[in-house]
Structure formats: C-alpha cells, structure tokens
Amino acid sequence: MIIIHNYPEFESYLGKELGVSGWHTITQEQVDQFADATIDHQWIHTDPEKAKNEGPFGGTIAHGYLTMSLLPYFWHQIADVQNLKMQINYGIENFKFGQAVLVGSRVRLKAKLPAIINLRGITKATIAVEMEIEGQTKPAYTGEVVFLYHFNA
Question: Could you read off the pLDDT of 109-130 as tens digits, one per residue?
C-alpha cells in the first residue's frame, strides 16, 4: 500500500502503477443484498438454479454495478491518502465491462495514475482501474475514476 500526504507525493506516481488490491470473493449473499438495495432482481443474478440451467454463464453473475461499487473498498487497499479535509468522488470515465463475474469468483483491482492536476489547491486525480478475475485473462472491467482531494495545508 502506498501512503500519500500531499499533492507532490501524489504527483510522484504520475504514469506509474499504484498497486494491486487483495482478492475478494463474490458471494451469492452479496449479490442478493445488492439486488435488494438496487431493486434489480433479474434472475441471472438472483436465481442460481435458473441461471445454471437456462443462463449463458452456467450460474449466477454479479451485477456489473456491484463490481463497480467495490472500487472504494479496493482503492483503500491500494492507497492510503492522508492529511485530508475531504475526498470527493468526481467522475467515472471510459468505463467498459469486459466479462461477467460468476458468483464464487475472486476479483481484485489494479490501479495506475495517468493524470493528476492541481486545481488551485484541490488535487484532481484520475485513476485508471482494471478489475481482474482470478484465472481469467479478460478483465471484468476497465475504466477511470476521478477523485478530488482537498489536502490540509
């Protein structure tokens, strides 16, 4: 894990890989809870028997947005950004889902820093992310997340 205290430390990672998170197993319980929270109970996510017998993946899959929602969890395993007044989720860009994540799969996040700007004391960091699925060559998704960091003086 990298530790960042200010803009110059963050900027020193420009163009570099920031790290890789630990593995996380996607469970049916997690998928069901996400379905309840988002009111998205499509059978491909929530009916293991039907998904096994009628679905194209041989079982239930995680919602794409569930895998996306794990970004903060994984990001905090990669980077500990300290000395903050506030952090704001600013945007998601160029996001593409590449492969379904089967329930029971293990996933992790790789992160790089392709862009960082100091906007009058506010750090705008663009983090390129890729969610890997253990044993698969194609990622679950790729994209960029943009955070605004307000460091203490």
Answer: 999 999 999 999 999 999 999 9
